[in-house]
Amino acid sequence: MDSPIKSWNDGGGSWNDGGGSWNDGGGSWNDRGDWAMTQIRKQFIPVLLAQGSSLNHKSKSGFGIIESLKKGLFLSIIDAREYIMKHLRKNNFRPFGLKIILSVFILFFLLFVNTGNGDIDGKEYFRQGRNDLEALRYKEAASSLSLAQKEFPLLEDYTLYYLAEAYHGLEDHQKSLEIIQSLLAGYPETPLRKKARVAEIREKKDAGSADLLQSYEAYLKEYQEDEEMFFLYGKLLRETGNTAKASAVFKKIYVDAGKLSHAALAELKPEDIKTKDIIERAANLFRGYNFTEAEQDLRQALEKDNGTLRTEILKSLGLSLFRQKKYQEAAKVFGRVDDLYYQARSFYRAGDKKAFDATLSELIARDDKRTGYLLNAVAGDKRREKDFAGAIKLYNETLKNYPSDAEDALWGIGWSQYLDGAYAKSAVTFSQLYKKYDDLKYLYWQARSLEAGGKDASELYGKLTPAGNSFYTVMTYAMHKRPFSKPVSADPAFNDISRDKIKKSERIEVLISLDMQKEAIMELSFASGKINTPSELLYIISKYQELGEYKRAISLASQMPWSEKIHAFQYPIAFWDSVEPTAKKFNIDPLVVLSVMREESRFDVNAKSAAGAYGLMQLMPQTAYRLDQSLKLGINRPSQLTVARDNIQLGSFYLRSLFNEFHSLPHVLAAYNAGESAVRTWQDRGKYKSVDEFIEDIPYAETRNYVKKVLTSYFQYKKLSSADKEGAVFLDIIPGEL
Question: Is the same domain home to 525 and 659?
Answer without folding.
Answer: no
